[in-house]
Amino acid sequence: MNKLLLICMSVLVGGAIIGGLVVVGGPQHARLAQQDSQRLSDLRTLHTHLMCLGHPRKPLPQALADDSYCPGTRSGLRDVLTQGDPATGAPYAYHRLSDTAFEVCATLALDPAEARKAAFDQDTIALRANDTLCFIGDRAGFVN
Amino acid sequence: MAQRDELSIFVRDALAAGKSRAEITAALTHAGWRSAEVQDALNGWDEMPFSPPIPRPVATVSARDFFTYALTFCVLILGAFNLVVVLQALVDVVFATGDGGSDRSIRWGVAVLIVTGPMYLWLTLRERRKLARDPALYRSAIRKWMIYIGLLLAALTMLGDSIATIYALLTGDLTAQFVLKALVVLVVAGGIFAYYLRDLREEAPS
């Protein structure tokens, strides 16, 4: 009887371990997911920098590296600009669409649709191709 | 058995002086001792007529037992708690309400289970073998205490679980998801309770 209980509990523990690993994925998957969340957070920093809310409006910079564009900008910005993509180190893609509209993009390792679904700011996120995610912004709608 | 020292010493002296058990019982009853207490005190000494009286084995307390059983106990509690966490997170995933935070708790729980699961199994099987070889271990007071504390915690957990379920029923929150999660707690706590209860029963021959 007790042996049976012990076996049942061992099976339950084994099941929980296997089930848990199937749901969250292995170490490789976790590493990629971590990179993707780093990319999202970097893009958010860039987006905030480019929106530059609360400051007088001026035309968007020609290049991302111009960090004088928005004075008093967030402290993490310099890291994002120097380190670039967490896996490749390449700078993030910045598309200047007009004097006020822009998008900053990154190529994700995992499904960007999932990442977008889990994000709190979904309406500033657009998907390009099937592995690229962009944060879009337009200063035109803002008064200053 | 006889923790009451005066009584125990009296019984020993009386036996040594050659009094019969019936005489001792009569004398102690006259003095106001209850029959269970008298029986306990007499049981502390072997029936065989021998002078001085032969003591029967009593419960033992050893630091090594404390190490083994406290370790087993902690591993069990840690493992059981995280087993519940992982299983409940899996229930959330099945019902598609899991968020980013549940991945983290599943990873942590799985890490704990990978360590504590085999560890508990090894400690328990090792203890079984030792008990089979040396039944004197059944008299370990620490072993008894740890088992009873485990039973108490398991019982309290099941109690809280049923209260939460009834409360959810009354507030109208009793969804299938909730029932499954409550069931997870019940199965884990109930399993531990049943296991240690059988453990106590099995050793009955003392």
From TrEMBL, chain B:
Residue ranges annotated for the DUF5671 domain, each copy included: 65-195
Transmembrane segments: 66-91, 106-125, 145-170, 176-197
Record keywords, A-Z: Membrane, Transmembrane, Transmembrane helix
InterPro entries documented for this protein: DUF5671 (IPR043728)
Protein's name in the database: DUF5671 domain-containing protein
Organism: Sulfitobacter pontiacus
